[in-house]
What we know:
This protein is mainly α. Helices cover about 50% and strands about 0% of the residues. The protein is built from two helices and no strands.
Amino acid sequence: MGAGQSRSSNQLVVPQANQALEQLKFEVAQELGIQIPQDGYYGYMASRDTGAIGGHITRRLVQIAEQAISGGAVR
Length: 75
């Protein structure tokens, strides 16, 4: 696998969202003080760190969806 490639078989429903999700991943990692490997290889990262990033991304996406449903502004 090269830089930026993923082994995930998940398909995005909206492929154009890929860049936004990548940006969100880097923002969340920075907030948590976790360094994402520049070469895209996550094999040396602790599962705890990758799980924390994924959990915070999910939490934020749920928050955005709840606000969109209720008609509120996204923070």
